[in-house]
Amino acid sequence: MTETLEYPKVYLGGDLVFRKNAQQLFQAFKEICLAARLHGVSPFDGQEEVEVLPPGKETSLLIAQLDRGLMDRCDAALFCIDPFRRSADMDPGTAVEIGYMAAQNKPMAGYTVDGRFYHEKVRSYFERAWQTSLTEEAPHTGSRVRWLDADQIIVHSEGLLQNAMVEGFIRQAGGDIAVAENILTAFRTAATQLADLIYGAVGAKETPHE
């Protein structure tokens, strides 16, 4: 057994699989994980069979099944929560994965290169894509000011970088969200934080009560 296999296995989730330089990113991420005493697991790992299959429904469902299997075999996860396809929201598949790992009570941490609050991302998206602004709804007695988009949908999750369920699940799992302009810097911070969380928990379990 190699040294990396003795380290906690960490699922590397996010929209990274759709990026043109995905393989290079995952290789760099795995090296960062190794330095933090973690074994990074890419969604591409163990999916060589997919490369020779034709695109379509069955292949897409197989990828989802294989990704789920990888998460089942991992001890923790690092998730990229960058906005996806120029929108305000992150990749929906990654959001599902965060919920899945949270349901298994596994440690998680997140990272992003976009440190704007969620409502700022929504505002920017509507102004850029639809040339419309958010509107302010007069507060009712004792309630906070609310912002609405052009479809009269409330802009939620104040003070957070993404949907409250996404960021909330990561934080409830003990993790934080690392923010940096460079994705490798953001990832390195998140990986270090996750390693501290994992090894700190292990140390606490091994420390006898006085």
From TrEMBL:
The keyword Transferase belongs to this UniProt entry's keyword annotation: yes
PANTHER family noted in UniProt: 2'-DEOXYNUCLEOSIDE 5'-PHOSPHATE N-HYDROLASE 1 (PTHR15364)
InterPro entries per UniProt: 2'-dNMP_N-hydrolase (IPR051239), Nucleoside_deoxyribTrfase (IPR007710)
Coiled coil: none
Pfam families referenced in this protein's UniProt entry, alphabetically: Nuc_deoxyrib_tr
Keywords associated with the record: Transferase
Any one GO molecular-function label of the UniProt entry: 5-hydroxymethyl-dUMP N-hydrolase activity
BP GO annotations: deoxyribonucleoside monophosphate catabolic process
Protein species of origin: Acetobacter orleanensis
Domain of life of the organism encoding this protein: Bacteria
Keyword NAD recorded: no
Protein's UniProt name: Nucleoside 2-deoxyribosyltransferase
